[in-house]
From TrEMBL:
GO terms for biological process: chlorophyll catabolic process. GO terms for cellular component: chloroplast. GO terms for molecular function: red chlorophyll catabolite reductase activity. This is Uncharacterized protein.
Amino acid sequence: MLEAWFHRTLPTGSAIDITSLIVFLNGTTDAPHFLMELIQGGPSSLVVLLDLFPRRDLPPHPDYIDRYYGATGVDSHRQSIARIPQVRPYVSPSLLVRSLWSPTAVVVDVQCGEGNESVLEEIVIGQLASSAMAALLMSGSSTVRGAWWRWRRRRGRAWWLVTR
């Protein structure tokens, strides 16, 4: 498990905060690796990346797709996140960055508008946290689930970034 937190004050005076949780599993399971990244550039905006990195090349392994992505209903959580009014799909302007995400990644931009920090907090603690946990449960890996709970417990209620 790798966790990281990065804070940088920008030349404009604003700041950017990035929190990452990456869990790579050993060879005893075929379950996908897990990545969650939260990038906050302001108190009411957030870019969220949830990804289950496949351990196999997906096109030639439809059975792997069915087992870890199709049969688990993991895409229903992406659809649920997409229905949140403040959420828009995020597309990085960098081809390199986009190439790093798996085809199963959920990458969204949450924009709540100035003065709506509490709305962002509700979205993150509610729908985004439950979708991240559901992805872990669907991965079938108790190692990943345990890592998630240890990471979240260390951060308490404010496990996500708040720049105030």
